Amino acid sequence: MKSDFLKVSTEKGVGRIRLHRPEVLNALNRQMVADLVEQLESWDRDEHIGAILLLGGPKAFAAGADIEEMAQATAVEMLRLDPFVDWDRIRKISKPIVAAVQGYALGGGCELALACDLILASESAQFGQPEINIGVMPGAGGTQRLTRAVGKARAMEMVLTGKPITAQEAFQAHLINRVVPEEALEEEATKLAEELASKPPVALRLAKQAVSKAAEVGLTEGLDYEQKLFYFLFSTEDQKEGMQAFSEKRRPTFRGK
Ligand code: HXC
């Protein structure tokens, strides 16, 4: 796929997207989000891709939605454009997405990282929801996913004051998986994505769905859902292969079947 705002490549079963609008710190305009979603969906259907890696630039993962693009919009225009339709499609991606965050992850940039499944950040990363300072509030999950991740107290402070937190604070608040040195971020994130891409694809996909479900439903419904997916995996060749390889003390070969 060709995009003016993304750099896209694939290697070792990993689809790699780099947000690329460096002149505005990767501010997310609507076309960029549309391109991103189209690429994610295309890889979700591609059997050669097992996991996705999303990167930004050294100064910014993304400094939010493009303020210039929204500044003059009326409420009716926003309703008609309904930009969150595209954002909602990210939620439907069934393959794991790893975000590698350096520098600013603000507003929509923070929400985009939160829409991913695993977040690695370098020491320079800053996570924040500064929308309050420009007269709005988060709209792509910043009041919901953030609150589920870090709890009400922390989320309320971030959303109401607009002040960002550091990578280390984000780690302590359970917002991200790991903080790594600046120069190691890309390599670590790539390794993690490649590791995910080597897992049995159907189990990986359903396991992601089950964990994501935990944020949405009560315990009984969640457990029922988990059990059904667990039973279903016994219809796959990969389950037979995985367990047989264990017994035979060899490495399994998974085929996604
Ligand atoms: C448009 C942006 C931008 C943004 C930065 N730029 N963020 N343009 N939308 N979100 C542009 C600047 O205008 C500037 O362009 C260039 O990028 C470099 O930014 P500077 O401000 O000069 O850099 P610096 O002084 O280092 O400050 C970095 C910063 C600041 C702290 C990240 O840029 C900033 O506060 N940006 C806005 C952050 C924000 O409010 N995000 C939330 C947006 S609302 P020029 O042309 O001057 O060089 C949102 C809602 C989400 O995300 C809803 C989902 C759709």
UniProtKB/TrEMBL annotation:
Entry keyword Lyase: yes
Keywords of the record: Lyase
Similarity comment text for this entry: Belongs to the enoyl-CoA hydratase/isomerase family.
Species the sequence originates in: Kroppenstedtia sanguinis
Residue runs in coiled coils: none
Protein name, as recorded: Enoyl-CoA hydratase-related protein
A matching Pfam family: ECH_1
